């Protein structure tokens, strides 16, 4: 099942290929101050794939705090945080904010509180490696367009 999503203004769009064997979508409401203030409720599955397209990447801010092991991608035009990435041993992993998903039956979302404050960095990265989306592609439409123009395509 392909689930689409986007930030509020549409600058960042998401295509989440969710595994068909998963009827429910787990959603973790992280209790950290950033997620609480932004309403971040995150989902992932290691067998899912995520494709992100940014129309204008200059309007996407990247924010890392605390352990600086995760990057929150914030659309600076509308303020939405549609996804988070973490690079671990050269591999990019991601989680998606369920509040940014659109063609999804809300009854399939299973929200639960999550608190990761007591994790050390090693345990945190191991959990992400096990649970986050490992097939992540990020496309910059503006850069792709400039590249095609520069090569005469």
Structural commentary:
With 153 residues, this protein is α+β, with helices and mostly antiparallel strands. The chain is built from three helices and eleven strands, in the order βββαβββββββαβα. The protein has helices at 33-38, 121-131, 141-150; strands at residues 2-6, 12-17, 25-30, 41-43, 49-54, 60-63, 71-75, 83-88, 91-97, 109-114, 135-140. A hairpin with a 2-residue loop joins β8 (83-88) and β9 (91-97). Residues 146-153 have low confidence and may be disordered.
Query: For the terminal residues, how far apart are their CA atoms?
Result: 33 Å
Q: Tally of extended strands?
A: 11
Beta fraction:
35-45%
Quickly name the level 1 CATH class.
Mainly Beta
Q: Biggest sheet: strands side by side, in what order?
A: 6-7-8-9-4-3-10
> What is the CATH fold-level name?
Metal Binding Protein, Guanine Nucleotide Exchange Factor, Chain A
Number of domains: 1
Helical percentage: 10-25%
| Biggest sheet features | 7 strands, mixed
Decide which structural class fits the backbone: alpha+beta
| Global morphology | globular
Radius of gyration: 16 Å
What's the helix-strand series?
Answer: EEEHEEEEEEEHEH
Low-confidence stretches: 146-153
Mean of residue pLDDT?
A: 89
- The CATH architecture assignment turns out to be Beta Complex
Tally of individual helices: 3
